[in-house]
């Protein structure tokens, strides 16, 4: 194969994979990395799709190699080069080189538009409409670019109209497919407000939280409920959504499902947090079993979800029912103490805030916290680079716990930290 000359403006550094050099014509001229999805622009030059898309997205209108203005921005997949790269990867498998996957091509806008029309046309047979929605969902899962394309074609409004169609003969499967897509494409703020202000629509979403045979329907309903709460600007409407006792039971049942998926846990925690932002209804979450659900699942969550779960714990500890329920759970205090300085600054702040609320209500909980090793954690916390809010909570908690410190350690702790010097929270 004849070698192509790369302009001097692109520094070509030796790139090795597991001790072997990657052929330069397999590397993207922009990133200098092995191309995963080679595409050719109108000038005949080939780039990795992600690199050239980023180049154009930043406002560049010329070919990076030739500097010739791009007459159009079409990207043609270079299947031949991609296959050669894959063959090279396979032939070097013994050196630890992994075969690049065959990329899925971006959806054609005309096809997406046609599928949306098929899905929303009431004259179209139901099974065809369902098939169109499933194809749309498949495209949405393939890539962020596909999701962006679907969103720009006014898909949200069309899906909302299908989901909340009042025709009693409308297929439930059709509605569920629409719901699954809406979980990917949350409706606009205006649509969220229209849903929140309609008791029938809210009631329908709550009923789907109890779907007898599909956990996916339940999770998707929770996802849409969270989106509606987040997208509704009116505090009264948000409070109205949170009024229903059943909504808490339904969301918490997702968290207590025997074998929840990571997505179910993520959406369950996110929706419960959104519900608990409404202070006047937090007691309903406690009554529905939020305390046991949060404590039981806390160690199974990833960083972001754990932060949100701890924020929910702190919110619930601000009401008497919540404090009482968390205080009665044997694992609450040890888990909160263990969380400090272990996950993130935010998690530490929320855990310290919850411990402060709990310790303020009971000497028994103060002793539990001390026995769990909270003093060392708090002293490390006030000397760390965490948030000022977390430090203030730690200072207040140290002062509160002073009477519970072990007698043989009071002197040592007092030397390290002056508990009289507390900044009010």
Secondary structure: helix percent:
55-70%
Please give the largest β-sheet.
3 strands, antiparallel
Tell me, what's the shape?
Answer: globular
Count of β-strands: 5
Structural class computed from helices and strand pairing: mainly alpha
Radius of gyration, in angstroms, nearest whole number: 28 Å
Number of helices: 23
Low-confidence stretches: 1-15, 410-425
GO biological process, one term: protein ubiquitination
Keywords: Transferase, Ubl conjugation pathway
Enzyme class: transferase
InterPro entries: ARM-like (IPR011989), ARM-type_fold (IPR016024), ARM_PUB (IPR058678), PUB22/23/24-like (IPR045185), RING-Ubox_PUB (IPR045210), Ubox_domain (IPR003613), Znf_RING/FYVE/PHD (IPR013083)
Topology:
Blueprint: E1 16-17, E2 20-21, E3 38-40, E4 46-48, H1 49-57, E5 76-77, H2 79-91, H3 109-120, H4 126-142, H5 144-152, H6 155-163, H7 172-182, H8 189-196, H9 199-208, H10 215-231, H11 235-241, H12 245-255, H13 262-276, H14 282-287, H15 290-297, H16 303-316, H17 320-328, H18 332-339, H19 345-359, H20 363-371, H21 374-382, H22 388-400, H23 410-416
Helix pairs in contact: 3-4, 4-5, 4-7, 6-7, 7-10, 8-10, 9-10, 10-13, 12-13, 13-16, 16-19, 18-19, 19-22, 21-22
